[in-house]
Amino acid sequence: MTPPRRVLWVPNEIGTALQSGYRRAFADLLATGALDEVEVFSLEQRMRAGGDAAAHRADLLAVAERFRPDLVFMQHTGFTGLTGGDVDRILRHGARLLYQEADPYTRWLHPLPASARAVGRRADVVHTCGAGVFSDNFRRAGARRVEWMPHVFDPARIDTAPKRAERELDVVVVGNRSRARFRPLPSAADRRRFVDLLQQRHGTALGLYGNGWSGPAARGPIPYSQQSEVVRGAWLSANWDHFADEACYFSDRLPIALASGSLHATTLHPGYSAVFPPETARFLVTGSTPQDLVERIGRFLETTSVDQRLEAEEAAKEFAWRHFRQDDQLVTMLNSVGTGIDPAAASAAWDLTTPPLTAG
Q1: Where does the Spore protein YkvP/CgeB glycosyl transferase-like domain start and stop, copy by copy (predicted)?
Q2: Domains in the chain, please, with CATH?
Q3: How far separated are the first and last CA of the chain, in Å rounded?
């Protein structure tokens, strides 16, 4: 079968928050001849900017008819209202379909949207960020092949300047406080408990960034692009996941922190032993309950020297850049549907100064 080299990409983008890491990686793949053409149609971005949603969907179908891709790559379609009939029309000239869902969904409380089910059912491969319920959602929807794909970081957004031996804070947390009363996110109460315990133990040596928090450590929300800079101001970044029971799941805060050279503490999920080998314990602290994680954070800070932490930060950075780069992950996903891109050649060609693909 001929490898697909003409890609129609329907990204997950809102407003000016473009997927710059993927756009740059696609530009590099085009520049090196790994792909022939890439057409971008940012459907969700167009819809949220206004206008008639049905007209935007019709425009996507018209682009697919004109461009006639041999691969369609869609991400996070839940807001778009795409139906199975729409997807069938997009694929009617024989294109393969790759779908990535990087948002977490449970079975009942926060179910998979109808559009994601429709796309997943028709996809050759679905990639999703959890190996338990998140993956089972797509299998129940009729997906033929579902694979776990972790959250990653955009290399161009990571602060890689040398770090100082002195830190303003012991611990930093980046994450919002969930205030939903009737349909709260899973583990929202545990996240609040985790933050309360951290504040009690660390006081103003804790930096708490995000919406909804109060107390001596609260510093308000920060732009997404500043996460890397913020976590570098503490010895350790920490998070309690909203989806604590999902196998192999972690939010993008973990790869962003590790890639920035920050030690990280987070929820212990089922399946982590297959993702993080024993040697990662020097820079990754995990706990089974909020109380357990707070105790382990305190013990880590009390029993490690500055030199040990600095050495562990370098190991964290090396691990993340080897396993969690967004551009490398794009190649993995494209190859899952037979593009045949050489990962080593692609990795050698990544260029953070390449202009990303323009808006589509």
Answers
A1: 191-332
A2: 6-152+325-349 (3.40.50.2000), 155-322 (3.40.50.2000)
A3: 29
